[in-house]
Amino acid sequence: MRKNVAILVFDDVEVLDFAGPFEVFAVTDELRSHEEFSVATVAPVPGAIRARNGLKVVPDFTIDDCPPPRILVVPGGFGTRALLRNHVLIEWIQSKSRASEVTMSVCTGALLLAQAGILDGRRVTTHHDAVDALRRLAPKAIVEPGARFHDTGSVITAAGISAGIDSSLHLVGRLLGDAAADATAAYMEYERRR
Fold first, then answer.
1. pTM (two decimals)
2. pLDDT tens-digit profile of 110-168?
């Protein structure tokens, strides 16, 4: 059965933060006869969002009608700052994270996971410019910048922007084996970082 992958999008989301993981999971699904992942974007409210630098995206779902994700991807970007005060979204992240197999943040998406209380006691990372903010929001987490990503089982945090491709390929490898991740990276002409 295909795993639902829900990728959060919002105004001022960093484009590669969500597009990189989208590409990894969608390409893996395509290479494996559409039997692995059903990938969709989900927004806090209906309507198009305007990503960083003006890219318009029409999300597939809102948080009110999104199918239950097995994998939840929470990207970053400047828009995360306003969302830290969005209690409805933070509660949605908490709820979906408890029910999902894996919750993964990219870049400053880790700040939203911190606000949701998901990072306590875990080794985590984020974009290098947001390390201090993450330490303030998640004082019980072990913030270790410098790594491309940290995998703590049900939660994966990736460093800035392109690191979301690496963490997504890592998760594909964890779920389906290294051959599947390597095939996806080769198709994308991307040098996989382990």
1. 0.97
2. 999 999 999 999 999 999 999 999 999 999 999 999 999 999 999 999 999 999 999 99
Q: How many residues does the chain have?
A: 194
d(CA 190, CA 28): 13
Cα 108 from Cα 96, distance rounded (Å): 18
**Is residue 193, in this structure, part of any structural domain at all?**
no
Q: Please tell me the total count of domains within the chain.
A: 1
Structural domain boundaries enclosing 17? 3-187
Q: How many CB atoms lie within 10 A of CB 68?
A: 11
Q: Whole-angstrom Cα distance, residue 112 to residue 8?
A: 11
Give CA separation, 42 vs 24, 97, 133, 145, 156, in Å: 17, 14, 25, 28, 19
CATH number at residue 171: 3.40.50.880
